[in-house]
Amino acid sequence: MSLSLEIETPRLLLRQWRAADRRPFAELNADPQVTEFLVPLDAAQSDALADRLAAEIDEHGWGVWAVEAPGVAPFIGFVGIRPLSSALPFAPGIEIAWRLARPYWGRGYAAEAARAALRVGFEQLRAPEIVAFTVAENRRSRAVMAKLGMREDPVPFRHPALPEDHTLSLHVLYRLRQQDWRAASGRDGDGDRCTPVAAA
Question: Which of 71, 87, 169, 174 has the fewest CB atoms within 10 Å distance of its CB?
Answer without folding.
Answer: 71
